[in-house]
Amino acid sequence: ENNRSEPRIILDRYRSVEFSLSKKDPIFQFRVRDTSPSGMGILITEGSMALKYLKVGQVLLMKYNPENPHDSPEQIKTEIRHITRVADGRYKGHYLVGLRIKND
Fold first, then answer.
1. 52 and 104 in contact (C-beta within 8 Å)?
2. Helix (H, G, I), strand (E, B) or coil at 87
3. Considering only CA atoms, which of 68, 81, 70 is closest in space to residue 40?
4. Any idea what the Cα angle at residue 50 is, between residues 90 and 19, rounded to 5°?
5. Backbone phi, psi, residue 96, to 5°
6. Minimal CA–CA distance to 50: which of 24, 30, 71?
């Protein structure tokens, strides 16, 4: 099974995602990143309020902002797959949040 086809399309087409848990909560925006051979994610700075809102297994309606500014953003159901602290390297002090598009 090739798990790469859908995430690759998303990564090629969209620049960033936005989400909020409710109208009273803040809107967070992050760049979509290629995180592994089978997935995509976002990188969040340690201490960001966004980490307080996210839980593994949670499904959110995220707004995907296109690379092409003439295209319209799309609302897509997205599952939080993992929240992993980066211990060393370039992104030390950040959390990698794995995302998966929900097709149901």
1. no
2. coil
3. 81
4. 110
5. -95, 125
6. 30
Task: Report pLDDT digits (tens) over 24-81.
Answer: 888 999 999 876 666 789 999 999 999 988 999 999 999 999 998 899 999 999 999 9
To which residue do tokens 């593994």 refer? 56
The whole-angstrom separation of Cα 104 and Cα 101 is: 9
The answer to whether the beta carbons of residues 86 and 92 sit under 8 Å apart is: yes
Q: Tokens 């909560």 label which residue? A: 25
pTM of the predicted model, to two decimals? 0.83
Please provide the DSSP assignment of 15-52 as one string.
Answer: EEEEE-SSTTSPPEEEE-EEEETTEEEEEEETT-THHH
